[in-house]
Amino acid sequence: MNNKRQLGFALAFLGVVMFSAKAVMVKLAYVNGVEAVSLLLLRMLFALPVYLLITSLNFSKLKTRLNPKNLWALLLFGFLGYYLASYFDFLGLKFIKASLERIILFIYPTIVLILSFLFLKKKIESRQVIAIAITYLGVLVMYYQEPDFSSTESMLGVGLILLSALTYASYLVGSDWLIPQLGSTLFTSLAMIVSCICVILHYCMVGDFDLFNYPAEVYGLSIAMATLSTIIPSYLISYAIKLLGASDFSVMASMGPVSTIILAWVFLGEQLTVIQIVGAIVVIVGVYYVTRKKQKS
Q: How many helices (H) and strands (E) in the chain?
């Protein structure tokens, strides 16, 4: 049991770090003038063939496990997760820094705990509350030197990222319920296919239909997002949720702000201060607390 949980925490850490890199790649792509919905479409188009292939390899499981109730739930959580949450996230990144985006997005562990309690009747454990409190303290320390939200654009960006946190938390809770019924691989593939279809439909309604005239860097970043920050982490995160549950995974996700601040410093030239480093250490302490306490129990 301990070995499985250790594997779950390791996969969660790797998945969160890879997924967090998306914010940096989005900011790099925006330099080339690409719109949010176009960038999201490119990311999904490059990822879609992989999800279709893996679904086809699991077709026998699909026929036996996908009943009408699961299908409707899958459509809902596919829509919420990597479509709506991603769209709000991509849009919000037009107005605020990548490091600040990841800090705001970190409110979703609390939302996950509350939704899991309300809808899945999962008890909120004291160790989870303590771990989240510690990691929140670290995030607040990292946030201390950020500029205030005096401009309308900054406020809009913050609001969009908050909506992304809410929709992604809903997706995680839905994953916790559906993964045992469908299996982590099949669930991830189907949910991502739903998300891809939603993005395609969205683009057909509002897109500029000018996908072939961007600089080569945009396509390179889209492929990187599709592989390194979508396909691989989507399976890692689903399997980690299977091993840990959504609540413990959401605490591990606090590594997201830490990794994004470091990546934004390296690739975007965003400021990295001593206070932010101290905050990152506090976050790591909180993550260590939840993993350590659970392994002892």
A: 15, 0
Residue bearing tokens 């800090």: 103
CB 240 within 8 A of CB 175: no
Per-chain mean pLDDT for the chain: 84
Are residues 24 and 256 in contact, defined by beta-carbon separation less than 8 angstroms? Answer: no
pLDDT (tens digit per residue) in 19-64: 889 989 999 999 998 988 999 999 999 999 999 999 999 888 888 8
- How many Å apart are CA 13 and CA 4, to the nearest integer? 14
Question: CA dist 150 to 104, 156, 162, 241, Å?
Answer: 16, 11, 17, 38
Whether the per-residue pLDDT at 1 is higher than 70: the answer is: no
* First-last CA distance in the chain: 11
3-state helix, strand, coil in the chain (%, to 5): 85, 0, 15
Residue with tokens 């390791």: 10
Q: What is the DSSP letter of 147?
A: P
3-state DSSP assignment of residue 143 = helix
What is the total count of domains within the chain?
Answer: 1
pLDDT tens for each residue of 142-190: 666 555 555 677 788 878 988 998 898 888 888 888 988 898 899 999 9
- Residue 296: per-residue pLDDT: 47
**Pick from 165, 30, 16, 169: which is nearest to 97 by CA?**
30
Instruction: Show Cβ contacts of residue 55 under 8 Å, excluding neighbours closer than 6 positions.
Output: 62, 186, 189, 190, 193
Structure token digits, residue 226 = 């599709």
| SS3 category, 138 | helix
Three-point CA angle 261, 263, 266, nearest 5°: 110
Could you tell me the residue range of the domain that residue 209 belongs to?
A: 2-296
Compute the average pLDDT of residues 60-69: 85
